[in-house]
Amino acid sequence: MLSGRTVSDVIYNTGILVVLMLSGLVVGWRVHTNVGDFLLAVALMLFFTFAMAWIGVLVGLLVPSVEVGQQLGFLIVFPLTFLSNAFVPTSTLPSWLRPVAEWNPFSALTAATRELFGNPNPFTSGFPGDHPFLLSILCTVGLLAVFAPLAVRKYRSIDR
Predict the structure, then answer these.
(1) Domain that holds residue 116
(2) Is pLDDT larger for residue 1 or for residue 51?
(3) What is the pLDDT of residues 51-86, one digit of tens each?
């Protein structure tokens, strides 16, 4: 049941991704690489979506209501998004905050997709900047390895 839910989330988000990309094309966003890199970037985003869906499943199983789950999800995703390279280059952040942003899974995904789309990558040097695709895969696999088993364990412990 949980796997079906997470897969359906990925399918739903695929539709959202199509709408976002079409909207981006209208306002001037372009892919500057080949079809293979484009498809790899899309697959990477959907893989990350799959991991985030498992986090959502666990949160949903732990909280008493949908509203609390949404608020908790917002409290987690909002700061992580703004502590990434999605909006500003990490090199512009204070030195104490830069490592957090550079190793943030959202930064890895953003840098990897930018690289695969052939768009400028604002990352600085170092492992996160030199290997964003690998870091994104490692972060996503790590998130799945932690949150999928926790969600399944929590689901099995619920009295029905």
Answers:
(1) 2-157
(2) 51
(3) 999 999 999 999 999 899 999 988 888 888 989 988
DSSP state of 92: G
Tokens of 18: 């199509």
Q: Shortest CA distance to 132 belongs to which of 86, 88, 80?
A: 86
Per-residue pLDDT for 158 more than 90?
no
CB 6 within 8 A of CB 147: no
Q: How far apart are CA 13 and CA 17, in angstroms?
A: 6
Which residues neighbour 37 within 8 Å (Cβ) at sequence distance 6 or greater? 31, 116, 117, 118
Q: How far apart are CA 110 and CA 136, in angstroms?
A: 9
Number of domains, the chain: 1
Report helix, strand and coil shares of the chain as percent, to nearest 5.
Answer: 75, 0, 25
State how far the Cα of 20 lies from the Cα of 24, in Å rounded to an integer.
6
